[in-house]
Amino acid sequence: MKHRSLLLLLVFLSALAGWFMGYVKLPYIDTSKDFLLGFVACMSAFCWFQFLRWLWNKRSATVNSPSVGPAAHPFGAKGLRLFFILSFVLLAMAAAGLYIGRTLQAELKAARGELASLKQSASVDEQKNKLGVLVELIRALDAATALQAGSTGATDLENRIVEMGASLSVQREWDPESRSYQELSATRGMLLLALVNTAMDSNSLSKILRRVSFSSADLRNADLRGKDLRGIDLSYANLKNAQLEGLRLDHAGLRGASLEGANLERASLVGTNLISATLSWAKISGANLHSARLDSADLSNAILDKASLNYATLIQTTLHNALLAGADLSNCFLWGTQFSNVNLSGAKLTGVTISGAQLADANMQDAIVPENWADLLREEANFGLDEHFKKYRVVPDSLSIRDSLIFRLAPEFR
Fold it and tell me: Per residue in 281-303, pLDDT tens?
C-alpha cells in the first residue's frame, strides 16, 4: 500500500513538473504539445534515475553478499541493456528538442524580419504622406502674403509645420554606395530643402528650423549654398558631397554628421558643434570656424587654407594630409591632435595649446609662433621635437613693427 502511494505521489510530481516545464517552455519548443513533451521528459528522467538507484542498490547487495561469486556481474545483461536504452531515449529526446527549438527560433526570427520589413514599408509610406501635407502647409504659408510675421494665422501655420515635422522619424535605409544600412531620414532632408527654397518670411523660417530636428537627415549632394541655417540640428545627418558654399551654420549641431567631400568654402561655422563629424576631403577654404568644436573629428585630406579656427578645440582630431596653409589657429586647443603630413605653412599659432602631438613630419614653414615656441612645446608631452627643431628655427619677422614683433618658423640651414 505504501509503495503504491509513493508511486502515485511520484507520478503526480512528475505531471506537475511536466506542466511547469511546458509552461516556461523548457526546452523551448513552440508547439501546442508543450505539456505532453515536458511530462514525457520528466517521466523518462524519473525512470532513468530510479533505474540507476535500483542498479546501485543491487550492486551493493551483490558485493556485500558472500553467496555470490566474484565472477557474477552485479547489474546483469538485462539491466545493462535497459540502462543503455533509457539513456539513448533521453539523449534522443534532448537532441530532438534542441533541433526543433532551433528550427522554430530560426523561423520565428525570419518571420520577425518580414514583419519589420512590412512595418518599415508602411512607415515609409506614412512618412511620404506626412511630407505631402507639410509641402501643402509650406505653400499655404508662402501664399499668405497678407499674413504678417507673428500674426495669428502665420503662427498657426508655423505650429502645424513644426508639429508634423517633429513626427518624421528616422528609417533604416540601405546605402548601395557603402553597402551597409544607415539610420537616415529622407523625409527630413526633403522637408529641409522644401523649407529653405520657399519665399516665407525669414523670421518664420528661423523659428521652424530651430524647433524641428533634422537629425539624421539625408542631404547627400544637396545644394544649400548661401542659406541661413543658424542653430539648426543636423546631428548625424549625411551631407556627403553637399554644396554648402557660403552657408551660415553658426551654433548649429552637427555632431557625428558626415560632410565627406562637402564644399564649405567661406561658410560660417561659428560655435558649431562638429564633434566626431567626418570632414575628410572637404573644402573648407576661408571658412569661419571661430570657437567651433572639432573634437574627435576626421579632417584628413581636408582643405582649410586661410580658414579661421581661433579658439576652436581640436582634441583628438585627425588632420592627416590636411592643408591649413595660412589658417588662423590662434588660441586653439590641440590636445592629442594627429598632425601626420599636415601643411601648416604660414598658419597663425600664437596662443595655441599643443599637447600629445606628433610634429616630426608637419610642414610649418613661415608659421607665426610665439617667441618661446620651443619652451611651450617642451612643457607638454609632444613628440618629434628633435626632428622639428632640426628643420625650423624661430626668427623675428622682418616685416613686423618694432613694438609688436612677430616670430615665424624659418628653415634651419645646417
Answer: 999 999 999 999 999 999 999 99
Backbone angles phi, psi at 104, to 5 degrees: -65, -35
The secondary structure of residue 320, as a DSSP letter, is T
Q: All 3 cell numbers of residue 290?
A: 571661430
pLDDT digits (tens, 9 = 90+) for 254-284: 999 999 999 999 999 999 999 999 999 999 9
Is there a contact between 235 and 202 (Cβ–Cβ < 8 Å)? no
- C-alpha dist (Å) from residue 280 to 61, 240, 277, 310, 336: 83, 10, 9, 20, 18
**Is the distance from CB of 37 to CB of 29 less than 8 angstroms?**
yes
Instruction: Say if pTM beats, i.e. exceeds, 0.70.
Output: no
* 99 vs 336: CA distance, rounded Å: 53
Alpha carbons 254 and 216: distance in angstroms, whole number: 10
| Domains assigned to the chain | 2-120 (no CATH), 219-414 (2.160.20.80)
Grid cell locating 9: 505521489
Only one residue has cell 508655423, namely 158
Q: In the chain, what's the furthest Cα-to-Cα distance?
A: 122
Contacts by residues 125-131 (CB-CB < 8 Å, ≥ 24 positions apart): 127/168, 127/169, 127/171, 127/185, 127/187, 128/187, 130/164, 130/167, 130/168, 130/187, 131/168, 131/187, 131/190, 131/191
Measure the CA dihedral 193/195/201/202, to 10°.
-60
Query: Residue 130 is placed in which grid cell?
Result: 506626412
